[in-house]
Specification:
There is one protein chain. The protein is an alpha/beta fold and 108 residues long. The chain has a single domain, classed as Rhodanese-like domain (Oxidized Rhodanese, domain 1). Helix content is 39%, strand content 11%. It has 5 helices and 4 strands, in the order αβαβαβαβα. The chain has a 4-stranded parallel sheet with strand order 2-1-3-4, covered by helices on one side. α2 links the parallel β1 and β2. The radius of gyration is 13 Å and the shape is globular. The model has no long low-confidence stretch (mean pLDDT 91).
Length: 108
């Protein structure tokens, strides 16, 4: 499944948003090309009307793939973004653990 998400992301120009805490990213590694946005501010960084949108997400609000450590909190975050109207948002099943186990790129 992770490989499929990576292929979809690459083909469609989707943005991978890493919602893991800085401490966890430092410990386990970063995903090259992923945009880091903590869960605590995700909605504001996605929403262009918030006044706090991330420049990296501007124009791609509905082209997001969320990833957390094990896939649980990113699933809930994707539901929250769906409720805000971003229905194409999805997440990586199994999160960073599955990403790493699948041998996908990680920078330490």
């Amino acid at each position: 499944m992770v490989r499929k998400i990576r292929q979809v992301r690459t083909r469609a120009g989707r943005i991978l948003v890493d919602t893991r805490d800085v401490d966890v990213r430092t410990r386990d590694g970063r995903i090259p090309g992923a945009v880091h946005i903590p869960l605590s501010v995700l909605e504001w960084r996605v929403d262009p009307t918030s006044g706090h949108q991330s420049a990296a997400l501007a124009g791609h609000e509905d082209d997001l793939i969320l990833i957390c450590h094990e896939g649980y909190s990113s699933s809930l975050a994707a539901v929250r973004l769906h409720e805000l109207g971003y229905g194409n948002t999805t997440d990586v099943i199994g999160g960073f653990v599955a990403w790493s186990a699948d041998g996908l790129p990680v920078e330490h």
